[in-house]
Amino acid sequence: MANIDEYSGGQHSPDVLVVTTNDVPGYRVDRVIGEVFGLTVRSRNLGSQLGAGLKSLAGGELRGLTKTLVEARNQAMDRLVEAARARGANAILMMRFDVSEAGGNGAEICAYGTAAVISPLG
């Protein structure tokens, strides 16, 4: 069985909470700082591409490409958190990913959301 960190993402930073929701139950939004993003562009790995081409003939998951995409998403997420932290945020609300092709040679992965300062209720 594969290590879960190789094929998934998630919360990476204990000091900046990242959520896909508009608010955080049990917290209030004290200040909205604004939009922040983290971006990475990854070229296609020749070895992964060859393996993916062969695997696509038989069908099934393209594990090399899956792992590469997970790494790219995690890097974009790390950059998003750093951007929010640099602006004084302790939370990112409404986080989303956007992936697009970059010139036919790779993929652009962008993590974005709303940087905010939140505090516990009561």
From TrEMBL:
Pfam families hit by this protein: YbjQ_1 (PF01906)
Family: Belongs to the UPF0145 family.
This protein's name: UPF0145 protein ACFP3V_14990
Superkingdom per UniProt: Bacteria
Gene3D superfamilies: Hypothetical protein apc22750. Chain B
PANTHER family: UPF0145 PROTEIN SCO3412, UPF0145 PROTEIN YBJQ
UniProt cross-references to HAMAP family, sorted A to Z: UPF0145
